[in-house]
Write a structure and sequence with these properties.
384 residues; alpha+beta; Beta Polymerase, domain 2; 2 domains; eight-stranded mixed beta sheet; 11 helices; 14% strand
Length: 384
């Protein structure tokens, strides 16, 4: 059977606007893509523009997955859910959750997961709605998410590899795990972008002339993006924990099948560990930034100390002869008396300068260069 036999393209409905472009540069020309497994037959890839085109497949197939690309997730998603027999308020209830949600209604299951995208340090997320019934999985997302459209191209291969003797709920659970895994892997890729920005920031920290305001803002934005990313991982882990025990009626209770869910939880936990480690690295970057501030303040303080030291010495050297000259101006001096007075001024100037230098050298710490740092306990005249 060739590819034309494997893939069924459903037509006849009024075409909706095309959705173009994806994360791999391909075009998504259909608003609905998916796969179905008819009883006793090979899986068929599906694509179309109207939900009504696929109702017959959902009634007769062993397993059907349909992915919907919509403009308004809540409004259009609710209509799609009602078309396939789901509760009309299920989508709106899921969207009340922040980042994730889990709604078990016995005969139907609703899941909200975050689909993350990041541009440098600007992290945004879009809701990914997953609706599950006996033999049906629906995924609904906005037009800027393409990860499941890409997965649909080889979804028939995944379904073909499922053992024929599996129960319907086992097949549904395995397909659900594969969809969640695809979304998680694309979310995990966003950590690489944060790592690239962290490397750029580390390079700037090595530059002593870099603007402090720019560094502080960059570190905050990166740490905020990382915290949001960590929140996404924790919320995803909450959903997996709700699935891993098979409490929902539409989910398999086979330990072998549920082990797939546990593997997904392990992957998310590892990503949480990596993200927390990066958070520690960013925290150390803040410490480095504080050290830069302290060093610059120390350099300024040393320059002020050097200036005050020399001003003290020069002021003392000028003050003594100036005082003597003022006093000497009150008396008329000529000949040997004038010579002796000038000698007194010279000697007193020299003595005052030496005395001022000795006092400053022994009582005040003099940095030898502007960037020198001396701990308080090492300074002369300080106590233990």
């Amino acid at each position: 059977m060739d590819q034309a036999d494997d893939m069924r393209s459903i037509g006849g409905a009024t075409p909706l606007p095309e959705v173009r472009g994806n994360e791999n540069g391909a075009d998504a020309k259909k608003r609905i893509v998916g796969v179905t497994l008819p009883p006793g037959s090979r899986p068929l890839r599906l694509q179309g523009n109207s939900p009504q085109e696929f109702l017959d497949y959902t009634r007769t197939s062993t397993l059907t997955w349909l992915n919907f690309t919509v403009r308004d997730v809540e409004k259009e998603g609710s209509a799609i859910a009602a078309t396939f027999g789901f509760s009309e308020n299920l989508v709106s209830t899921l969207l009340t959750g922040y980042l994730s949600n889990f709604e078990d209604r016995d005969v139907e299951l609703g899941i909200l997961l975050p689909a993350v995208k990041i541009n440098k340090v600007d992290l945004t997320w879009s809701p990914l709605i997953i609706l599950v019934r006996k033999n049906l999985i629906l995924t609904i997302h906005s037009e800027d998410i393409f990860r499941l459209i890409n997965f649909s191209r080889y979804s028939d291969t995944f379904v073909r590899k499922l053992p024929e003797n599996l129960l319907p709920e086992d097949k549904v659970t395995l397909m659900l795990c594969r969809i969640i895994d695809e979304n998680n892997n694309r979310n995990f890729e966003q950590l690489r972008e944060i790592e690239d920005q962290a490397d750029w920031l580390s390079q700037n920290l090595l530059d002593p002339k870099v603007e402090r305001d720019m560094l502080g803002t960059s570190i905050y934005e990166m740490k905020h993006a990382l915290i949001t990313y960590l929140n996404v991982l924790w919320r995803t882990l909450d959903v997996l924990n709700n699935l891993r025990y098979g409490d929902a009626d539409v989910i398999s209770d086979s330990p072998k099948v549920l082990a797939k869910v546990n593997l997904l939880a392990v992957d998310v936990t590892q990503q949480i560990s990596l993200s927390e480690h990066m958070s520690e690295v960013l925290a150390s970057g803040l410490e480095v930034l504080q050290s830069i501030y302290n060093n610059q303040l120390q350099m300024l303080n040393n320059r002020m100390s050097l200036a005050m030291t020399w001003l003290t010495i020069l002021g003392t050297a000028v003050l003594v002869p100036n005082t003597l000259a003022t006093i000497g101006g009150l008396v008329t001096m000529e000949g040997p008396m004038l010579t002796g007075f000038l000698a007194l001024i010279a000697l007193s100037t020299l003595a005052a300068t030496v005395l001022a230098w000795w006092w400053v050298s022994n009582k005040v710490h003099l940095p030898t260069r502007p960037d020198e740092f001396a701990p308080a306990q090492s300074r002369k005249g300080s106590g233990k």
